[in-house]
Amino acid sequence: MSTARSTPLHDEHLALGASMTEFGGWMMPLRYGSDIAEHTAVRSAAGLFDLSHMGEIEVSGPGAGAALDHALVGWLSTLEVGRARYSMIAQEDGAVVDDLVVYRTADETFLVVANAGNAEVVLAALEERVVGFDAQVTFTSPEVALVAVQGPRAAEILLSLTAAEHQDAVSSLKYYAITPATVAGTDLLVARTGYTGEDGFELFVENGAAVALWRALLVAGEPLGLVPAGLSARDSLRLEAGMPLYGHELDLTTTPFEAGLGRVVRLDKTDADGAPVDFVGRAALEARKSSEPARVLVGLKALGRRPARAGYPVVVDASKLDLVIGTVTSGAPSPTLGYPVALAYVTPEYSAAGTRLAVDVRGRGEAVEVVETPFYRRPRG
C-alpha cells in the first residue's frame, strides 16, 4: 500500500480524469489527457499546475539573512524585500543537497522553497545551520498549497481574478519577485518564478482555499485556452527551457560548477563587518572553481528521431559504443521544436557546441550534436 501523501487538490485531479503517479513522496497528476496537448497549451496559451508537493520553509528573525548566508551558497542577506533568488544548499564537500528558490517576504522573513523529495532534508539542514544566529526555522509547507499558471496568457488570466487594489502590483511584478495580493477573493502570495520557459505565476495559498482558487482559475482560463497540466508536461517544458531537475542534473555527486551553475555560488559574500562568510561547502567549492571539472553539463540535439533517455551512455561515435564519454541525465522528444533533446554530462573535451557525438539508445548509436541551452526561448514582445 502506498504511503504517498495527497495534496489538497487530489480530488480535483481525479474529477478531471488525471492519471496519478507517485513523485517525491506525493501522489501527483501525471497527465489529464494528452502530454503533448498540455505541453502545447502552456506554450501557446496557459497551463494550470498543482505544485503543492513542494516544500515551504520560513526562516525569520533579525539574523535570518546572515543565517541563510551561512547555510546556502548564495548571498541572501542582500536580497531586497519582494524579490527572489535561485540558490542551492550544499554539503561540506560542495555537492548539491538541493536547489532552491528563496523569497524575501519581509525585512526579517524569508521563504525557502525546496523540492518535494528533499523538503525534510533541507528543513533539518537549515535547523542545524541556523544555530548561533538570531533566527528561527518554521516548516510551513503542511499548511500551504501552491498553484502555478504558466504560459503567454497567464497574466491575463490571473489579472481577471485579481482584486482592483492589487492589479498594479501583480501586473508590474518582475521576474523572480513576489507580492501579496487578493485573487478570487483569497489573500495569498503571488510569485513570478516559472519552471517552464514561459511567463507565469505561482500562488502560495492556505490549504483551505486551494480548491476554490483552482476552480476559479480553470473557469477564468478556459475561454483563453488554459488547461490543467501534469508532471509529464512540466518535465518536457522544463527540459526545453534547459532547467535542471534534482535527481537528474543535480545530486549528491554534483557541484554547481559541473552543472554550469557556478554563478549561484557567491564566494565573495561578506558579513555585516565586511569579513568573508564561511558558508557550508565554501572551501570545497573554492577549490573546485579553480580546477577543471571532470564533467560538464551540455545540451544535445538529436539528429535522428529516437530520443535519448536518462541513464543512456554518451559515446564518441555511433560505431564505437564502448567509447563512453558521458551519461544522459534527461531526454525526451521536444513537442515545440519537433526533434528530441537531452541534457547530459560529458568530459570537457567533448563539451563545445557543434561537437558531433552519439548516444547508445538500446544498443544502437544515435547521432547527436552538442548545442547551447536553453533549447527553447520564448518569443519576446
From TrEMBL:
It catalyses: N(6)-[(R)-S(8)-aminomethyldihydrolipoyl]-L-lysyl-[protein] + (6S)-5,6,7,8-tetrahydrofolate = N(6)-[(R)-dihydrolipoyl]-L-lysyl-[protein] + (6R)-5,10-methylene-5,6,7,8-tetrahydrofolate + NH4(+). GO terms for cellular component: cytosol; glycine cleavage complex. Gene3D superfamilies: Aminomethyltransferase beta-barrel domains, Aminomethyltransferase fragment, Probable tRNA modification gtpase trme, domain 1. Keywords: Aminotransferase, Transferase. The glycine cleavage system catalyzes the degradation of glycine. The keyword Transferase applies. Residues 9-269 form the GCVT N-terminal domain. Its EC number is 2.1.2.10. Belongs to the GcvT family. This is Aminomethyltransferase. Substrate binds at residue 202. One of its GO terms (biological process) is methylation. It comes from Sanguibacter keddieii (strain ATCC 51767 / DSM 10542 / NCFB 3025 / ST-74). Residues 295-376 form the Aminomethyltransferase C-terminal domain. One of its GO terms (molecular function) is methyltransferase activity. The glycine cleavage system is composed of four proteins: P, T, L and H. The gene is gcvT.
